[in-house]
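Hey,
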Amino acid sequence: MRGQRFGLEAARLALLVILALFLAAPVTGQETVDSPSFLSPENFGETVEPEAPAAPVRCGGVPIAIARMQWPSSALLAHIHALILSREMGCEVSVVGGDLVGTVSSMATTGQPAIAPEVWVTRISQIWNSAIESQRLRPAGSTFAGSALEGWFVPEHLAQRFPELGNADQLRDVALQVRREDGEDLTFISCPPDWACSVINRNLIAAHGLTNLVEIVEPANRFELDTLIAQSVSRSRPVFFYYWQPNSVLAQFDFKELSMGVHDATAYTCLARRNCPNPQPSGFVPETVFMVIPDWVYNDVPEISDYLIRASIPLNELNELMAWQAENDAGFEEAAEHFVATRSEIWQNWLPAN
């Protein structure tokens, strides 16, 4: 019996040893095992490399939509700014279609698109004033830099013939001299009769004492206006004409802009009426054209605000670009590529300092 009991105790001891060895063995057959904190490498003096800093977030980390209006200069500017913001500032940019009223209204209510490069605010004054008062929109910078946006111009051959001619009020003496020397009247090419500027121009002719000294020509449409100007220049005719900027025509030929004098709001109100009883000289209405952004862009994406405040394009540069586009039958994107490739001395100054 004693030997039998000894045998049973020995067998139990062996079984306990085997069980202890099994429990001490590493766990196998599992995909992952969470390590307890006291087994972390830091507790064994190992060096842990810090994570690399995250790349800077460009343009607030949000897509930037730029409005392309229906007229040529706006479409060109939209693609120019899209190229620069994308390539030079790393923004995610898209160009979207729009119109003046619809785009500005959408920006004020929904915050999109993010940029409108050419907003003629005096033409949507009610919408604009409401958006500014509610602080939903901000003028980020002037779209254009340079001379007046509309006025009277003389071709280079007439400017050379009368080098003293610089102001509209000097046209009377020029008209009298042309009549004496050429036996004909000085010609004024105005705008189509159904345009508001035709009324203003007729009254300005009277205001400068030119009614009986100048032959007024009012073309039927924009195409005829450009044709008449081109023909008069090619034939060196004694003419002057009304036009506006930005536009390719003013870069295709050499013209001299005449000073129209300061804008007189009271006089101009009368000039805009067909039956103005006593027309007085005045410069044209000084248009205000802004690059516009919603308030969230100003607050959340300051690098875009810094860019736009510098990004005013000289009118003569845009005129020349539009002339290049016409001469080369180029699309808006191709013309924008041409500007970015050839005029870096202009747009490099638009980039923020950092």
